[in-house]
Design brief:
The protein has helices spanning 18-23, 29-32, 38-48, 52-60, 67-89, 95-104, 107-118, 131-148, 161-164; strands spanning 62-64, 123-126, 157-159. The protein is mostly helical.
Length: 174
Amino acid sequence: MELFRPVHLHLRHPELTLEEYRSGAALTPDHRRIITSPHELWQIGLIANIPDFHQKRIGLAMTMLQFKHYNEFQLGWVHREKYFLGQRLGHEPTELELADDFMRTSIPQQYRLAYLLQHPEKVALRDNVRPYESRLVDDFLQLAEFIGGVCYRHQFKRVRLDSAFKDLPEDFII
């Protein structure tokens, strides 16, 4: 069975097979350290195989529909990253060291894509994205469906940008 090859989404390792994706062959030791379940293995392997510039474009094309859940999920991700950074540094990282680690790596974009794969029903495509970015998101979801055997596209929604923020308090600042 041949792996789905996205048209618009470039991959760092296009030669990987379906079995290699599912076993995490594209993962570096840094990526392997954040995996907490076997289900995350192929997801993080897929995200690690996407170049940073495409990760950023896909991440910016999305909006979170349930901000409280997203922030709680993100907080767990930050705590894991803080722990692993402390292991690398040999001491409890300062806020500056943690911020520097986030700025030097593509962790924020990778986090948004991981959230999309784990909670597609709580993420939507903004209505004001460019067609190219929309195709990147479609390619990413098709590839994830092919590798993971889970249907993402029917759960992922298109929303008007103003309707995505209707449940926020008036003083909320983005």
